[in-house]
């Protein structure tokens, strides 16, 4: 029997959302991490209609 996967606690750097289902730019340190949630990336118009980063956007 295998052990369950350990998931890190992720917090959005822009809005503070906890453990977003879809996130970008994860940074993990000592068992927890930060990211940018999909909602924040869309609100800032960083994504094209297909959900990819627009040219020139770096996270």
Describe this structure in words.
This protein is mostly beta strands. Helices cover 10% and strands 29% of the residues. The chain contains 1 helix and 3 strands; from the N terminus they run E-E-E-H. It has a 3-stranded mixed sheet. A hairpin with a 2-residue loop joins strand 2 and strand 3. The longest helix has 6 residues. The radius of gyration is 13 Å and the shape is elongated. The mean pLDDT is 90.
Oligomer: single chain
Largest sheet: 3 strands, mixed
Strand order, biggest sheet? 1-3-2
Question: Total number of β-strand segments?
Answer: 3
What structural keywords apply?
single chain; 59 residues; mainly beta; 3 strands; 29% strand; elongated
Short note summarizing the structure:
The chain is mainly beta. The protein contains 1 helix and 3 strands. The longest helix has 6 residues, at 38-43.
Q: How does the SSE layout of this entry go?
A:
Layout: E1 9-12, E2 23-29, E3 32-37, H1 38-43
Parallel strand pairs: 1-3
Antiparallel strand pairs: 2-3
């Amino acid at each position: 029997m295998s052990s369950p996967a350990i998931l890190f606690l992720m917090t959005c750097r822009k809005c503070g959302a906890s453990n977003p289902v879809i996130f970008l730019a994860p940074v993990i340190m000592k068992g927890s991490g930060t990211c940018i949630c999909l909602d924040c990336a869309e609100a800032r118009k960083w994504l094209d209609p297909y959900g990819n980063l627009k040219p020139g956007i770096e996270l």
